[in-house]
Amino acid sequence: MAANLLKANPGNVVVYDISKDSVSALVEKGASAASSPADLARRCDVLITMVPATQHVSGLLRGPDGMFANAKKGSLFIDCSTIDPIASKELCAEAKKMGLNMIDAPVSGGVTGAAAGTLTFMVGGTAEDLDSARPALGAMGKNIVHCGPAGTGGVTKLANNLALAISMIGTAEAMTLGTKLGMDPKVLASVMNTSTARCWSSDSYNPVPGVMPNVPSSRDYSGGFGSALMEKDLTLAMDASKSVKARLPLGASAHQLYGLLCQHGFGGKDFSSVYEFLNKK
Amino acid sequence: MAANLLKANPGNVVVYDISKDSVSALVEKGASAASSPADLARRCDVLITMVPATQHVSGLLRGPDGMFANAKKGSLFIDCSTIDPIASKELCAEAKKMGLNMIDAPVSGGVTGAAAGTLTFMVGGTAEDLDSARPALGAMGKNIVHCGPAGTGGVTKLANNLALAISMIGTAEAMTLGTKLGMDPKVLASVMNTSTARCWSSDSYNPVPGVMPNVPSSRDYSGGFGSALMEKDLTLAMDASKSVKARLPLGASAHQLYGLLCQHGFGGKDFSSVYEFLNKK
Amino acid sequence: MAANLLKANPGNVVVYDISKDSVSALVEKGASAASSPADLARRCDVLITMVPATQHVSGLLRGPDGMFANAKKGSLFIDCSTIDPIASKELCAEAKKMGLNMIDAPVSGGVTGAAAGTLTFMVGGTAEDLDSARPALGAMGKNIVHCGPAGTGGVTKLANNLALAISMIGTAEAMTLGTKLGMDPKVLASVMNTSTARCWSSDSYNPVPGVMPNVPSSRDYSGGFGSALMEKDLTLAMDASKSVKARLPLGASAHQLYGLLCQHGFGGKDFSSVYEFLNKK
Amino acid sequence: MAANLLKANPGNVVVYDISKDSVSALVEKGASAASSPADLARRCDVLITMVPATQHVSGLLRGPDGMFANAKKGSLFIDCSTIDPIASKELCAEAKKMGLNMIDAPVSGGVTGAAAGTLTFMVGGTAEDLDSARPALGAMGKNIVHCGPAGTGGVTKLANNLALAISMIGTAEAMTLGTKLGMDPKVLASVMNTSTARCWSSDSYNPVPGVMPNVPSSRDYSGGFGSALMEKDLTLAMDASKSVKARLPLGASAHQLYGLLCQHGFGGKDFSSVYEFLNKK
Asked: From residue B1, how far is each of B15, B29, B116, B244 by CA, in Å?
C-alpha cells in the first residue's frame, strides 16, 4: 500500500513502522522515515494508520505522545485497520474535538490486492472528509465505498466478512455433501452458480481443489486470506454484536469452527480450507 | 405444472391425484382422469410423479398395484419429488430391472415458477432418458440441468438448498449486525452485493423489509418458499449426510434454526423470515 | 455378556455369531453353537439379540429364514441392540402378532460393565415380559430399569446419551476455559462438582488428564466409550427427533462435533477426548 | 446480603447505593448511610462491592473520587460482582500497588440464597486475604471456596455457569426427545438421574413442569435465575475465552440460544424455560 502511495506521490511520503526493515525498504523507494508516530503526525497533513488491533490504534493516536496530540489542526486521519467499529466511532469523535478530521477506511482485497493497488476501501465518515481522502485512497485501491457516518466502514467490513465466512462454510458443506454422494464437484458447482446457492465463495473462490484454477484451493490453500485472519474478524464481529444484542447463531458457530481450524493447524491456510478440514483423512 | 403440460400437449395428458378438486380442475382444461396410479401407468408412455416424501414415491411406484408393475415396457418415469436421493437411485435401478426407464428431476423455482413455466429441473439419469424427457420438462420449465447419473438430480437439489439456507441465514445475520450498529440496510446490502459477501440471498432475495421491492421480505414474508419447506429439505440433506458421513456443522445448526422457526409460528412464512425471527420484538 | 449368561446357566446357552472365533470361544466355555439364527430360534425359549444397527435387527428377525418365523410360540425376544426406537416398537408389535413376546433392552456400561456383569438394561415392554426376562438380564447386568411400553428402552438410552454427550462437551469446554485462564483443573473440578455444574461427566469421568485416576482421560483416552460409538448414538437420536419434530439445537451441534472428532482421528478414543480435540496443539 | 451482614454486625455496617430506597430500607434496620463511595471507603476497613458490570466496578474503584484512592491503607476490598475475571485480576494488582488488599468473590445461589444467607462464594485471592474476609462472607453465605489467586473466583463462576447452561439445555433437549417419543417425563428423569446423564439440571432443577415440585419449571418458570442473567454470564464467558483462545463450540451456541430466548420474551423467566422455548406451541 505504501509503495503504491509513493508511486502516486514521489518524494512526498513519510513512513513509520516498528519493523526497521519495512521502513528501509520504503526509504529505498523514496520515502522519508519518521522517528516516531508523533514526528510523523507533525510532518504530514494526511495520516494513514494500519495496525493489527483496537488497542494498537488507541495507543498510536491517544496520549501526549500520540498522533492526535501532535498533529496539525485540520489534518486528516485515515485509519485502515480492521478494529472494533464502536472504538472507531469514539476515536473519530475525539479527533473532531481536537480540531482534526478522521475517517475509518478498512480494506478488503488481501495481499494481492494491496500489491496491485486494487483494494476496496469501506469508508465511514463525512462526505467532505472522504473527498479529501480520495487522492490517497485512490492511489492504493480501486473501489472506494462510502458506507455512512464514522464507524460504518468497520461495521460494513465486519458484516461483510461475517456473511462471507458463513457462505464459505455453507459452500464447503454443500460441496462435501454432493461429492460424497457421488457428484462431480465441477458439475455441482456449475449448477449452484446459476441457481439460488450462487455466491462469491462458490463462483469466484470455490473451496474444492480443482474446480477453479488460480484460487487458493487449487494450490493447497496457500495465499489468499488466512483462517487465522478470518477468526480475528469473526471475533470482532461477535464482540460488536454484544453491545447491540444482535443474535448471530450461525456467526457464533462459524467463529468457533474457524477457531478449531486454527487449533488444528489450518490458521495459516486460506479460509477456504474449511473444506479440507471437513474432509480430512 | 400439469396446466403447462396440457397447453403443450392438448388432449394428451392423463392425471391422477388424491385431491378430486385438483383432478376436476385439470379435467376442465382438457385432461383425462385416471382411476388409479396403476391405471395411469397402463395408459401413458411418459409418467411424471410429484409427491411430498420418499415413502409416498415408494408407495406409488412399488408393489403389485404400483406404477412400475403396471407400466408398459420402455416407459419413462420422471420423478419430480424432492426425496432421499439414495432412494431415488434405488428406484431407478429397480425400474431398469423391470424394463423401464427413470430419471429423478426435482424442481426449483417455487409456486410462481410453476405457474409461469420457468422452473429449473435438476436431472439425474442417463443422457438418453433425459433427451426423451426434454419435451415434457420443457413444457413445464425453462432450465434443464443434467447433473449426472441416477440420484444426482436430488443430490444437487439438496446440496443447493443446504448452501441456500446457510447463506440466507448468514445474510440475515450480517444485515442484523449492520443495522443494529447503525447502518442503512440498503447501503449495507449494496456494498455486500459488490463484495465477497455477494450471494443470491443478498442480491436477489434480500431478507430485510424495504431493501428490495417484489421479494417476500417486502410483503411481510408472504409467498415464496416457506420455512417449513426449507426445514423439510434440510431434514433430507441431513439424512443423506449420515450414510456418507458428510460433516455439516452449519447445516445442522441451520436445520435446527428452521425447526425453531416452525415451532414459533414462522413455518408458513417465506424462509427469509429468519431475519424477522432474529429481530423479533 | 454371553460368558456371564453361561456362568448363570451352565450347559444351557446356545450361541450364534458371524465371527466363528467368538462362537468357538464360547463353545469352549460350555455353550452349544447354532448353525443359523433360525436354528437358534428353534432351539431356545429366550432369545437375546445384540447387533450393530436397525437393519441388522430387522434382517435377523424378519423374513422366512428370520428368527420370528422360526421361533416357538410364546418365546421371549430380548433385543439389546441400540437401534431406532420406532423400529423397535414396530418389531415388538410384529412379534405379538406372531404369538411371540419381545422387549427392547439396550444396555449401558461399556465393555468393562459387560465383563463385570454390572451393565444397566433400559427396558421397554410389558411388565410381564420384563419379569420373564429378569433371570437372563440379571445374569448380565446389575440395574434393570423398566422405562415403559415397547420402544421406550431405546428412547431412554438415546435421550440419556444425548444429554451425556452434551454434558461431556460442556464439561470439557468449562475445564478448557478455566485452565486456559490459569485455574488448577483439580480445584475447578472440585468446585463444579459441589455446585450447579455438577454432572457425571465432571464428577465421575472427568475429561481432563490427571484430574481423576482410573478414567479414560488419565490413560490417554483409551478404553471407555469411543467417540465413534457416541457419534452413532447421536445419529440415532437425531434420526428419532425428525419424526416427532423435536428441536435439538445443541444435540445437532454435539453430533457434528463428534463427527469431526471421528474425521480427525479421535473415533477410537474415548468420547471424553473431546477435551483433547478442543485443546490440540 | 446487607441485611445478613447487619444481623452479624449490628451498628457496624455503612451502606451506599444509587437507589435511595435500598439505602433507606437498610438504615431502618440499623445501617448508616455513606454520602458517596469515597465516603464509604474512608469510613470502613472491609469494603464489599456488588454491581452489574465490569465498567461499574472500574468506575467505582478507580480515579481520584474512587474507593481505592480514598481507602485506608491495608483495607480489604471484596468484590462480589460477576465481571470479566481478567479485569478482576488487574484491579487486585492495582489495589496491591496502592497498599490495599482485594479478593474477587462472585456469588451463586440466587435471590433465595441471598435472603437465607446460604450463598456460595467463589473466592480468588491470597489465603490471608480470604481469612480476613471470612467473617463478612460467613455472615452472608454458607460455602466459601478458595479457587486460587486473584481473578480465579470469577473464572470459576463463569466456567461453572458455562457448563450449567449447556447441561440445562442438554437436559431440556433429552426430555424433549423422550417425551415427544412417548415417555413419561418422570420415568425418564428418574432413569437419567441414576445413569450417565445425571446432572444438577436434571436431578435438582428439572426443566419439565411437573417432574419436581418447588422448582421454577413447576411454577411457570418464575423465580430462580433468569434467562437474561444467564445470557449475561455467557457473554462474559465468551469474552473471557477470546483472550486465551479457548474453543467453546457448544458454549457459543448456548449463548446464542439464550440470546434468542431473550429476544422472544423469555428473558425474565428462569433459565430452565429453554424447555418451554423448544416446545412452544
From this structure: 12, 13, 9, 34
Q: Clarify whether residues B121 and B170 are in a common domain.
A: no
> Which of C103, C127, C149 is at the close of a domain?
C149
For A57, the domain range is 2-150
A58-91, pLDDT tens digit by residue?
999 999 999 999 999 999 999 999 999 999 999 9
**C256:B262 CB<8 A:** no
At D8-63, the pLDDT tens digits run 988 899 999 999 999 999 999 999 999 999 999 999 999 999 999 999 999 999 99
**B176 contacts chain A (CB < 8 A):** yes
Nearest residue of A to residue D256 by CA position? A249
Q: Parallel, antiparallel, or unpaired for β B119-124 and B107-108?
A: antiparallel
Closest-CA distance, C233 to chain B, in angstroms, reads: 12
Q: Is the ipTM of this complex over 0.90?
A: yes
Just list the catalytic residues of B. Answer: 157
Determine contact: C115 vs chain D, CB below 8 A.
no
Q: Is B242 on the interface with D (CB under 8 A)?
A: no
Same domain, A24 and A67: yes
- Residue with the three cell numbers 414462522: B266
Q: Is A19 in the same domain as A138?
A: yes
Min CA distance, B257 vs chain D (Å)?
A: 10
Q: What CATH number does the domain containing D269 carry?
A: 1.10.1040.10
What is the spatial distance between Cα B157 and Cα D203, in angstroms, rounded to a whole number?
45
Looking at A104, A123, A150, the residue that finishes a domain is A150
Contacts of D278 in chain B (CB under 8 A): 260, 263
Beta strand pairing call for A14-15 and A32-33? parallel
Asked if D240 and D85 count as a contact pair (C-beta separation under 8 A), the reply is yes
Sign of the CA dihedral with A62 first, then A66, A70, and A71 last: negative
Residue A18 and residue A146 in one domain: yes
DSSP C34: P
CA–CA distance, B200 with A170 (Å, rounded to integer): 13
Our answer to whether residue A242 is catalytic in this structure is no
In eight-state DSSP terms, residue D209 is T
What mean pLDDT do residues A115-144 have?
Answer: 92
pTM of structure = 0.95
Distance separating alpha carbons of residues A271 and C247, to the nearest angstrom = 31
pLDDT grade for B102, boundaries at 50, 70 and 90: very high
Does C166 lie in the same domain as C144? no
D112 lies in the same domain as D62: yes
B207 with B128, same domain: the answer is: no
Q: Which of C239, C253, C263 sits opposite B252 (nearest CB)?
A: C253
What is the DSSP pairing of strand D141-148 with strand D119-124?
parallel
Q: What is the pLDDT of residue A118?
A: 81
From C44, C43, C45, C40, select the one nearest C66 (Cα to Cα): C40
A257:D263 CB<8 A: no
For residue D262, list chain A residues with Cβ-Cβ distance below 8 A: 245
User: What is the secondary structure of D5-50 as a DSSP string?
Assistant: HHHHSTT--EE--S-HHHHHHHHHTTPEEPSSHHHHHHH-SEEEE-
**Interchain contact A263–C (C-beta under 8 A):** yes
The count of residues in chain A is 281
Q: Which of C258, C278, C279 to mutate to test the interface with A (most CBs of A within 10 A)?
A: C278
- Distance from the Cα of A275 to chain C's closest Cα (Å) equals 12
Model confidence pLDDT, tens digit, residues B162-210: 999 999 999 999 999 999 999 999 999 999 998 999 999 999 999 999 9
A39 in the same domain as A159: no
Residues D173-214 have pLDDT tens digits of: 999 999 999 999 999 999 999 899 999 999 999 999 999 999
Per-residue pLDDT reduced to its tens digit, D93-146? 999 999 999 999 999 877 777 778 788 899 999 999 999 999 999 999 999 999
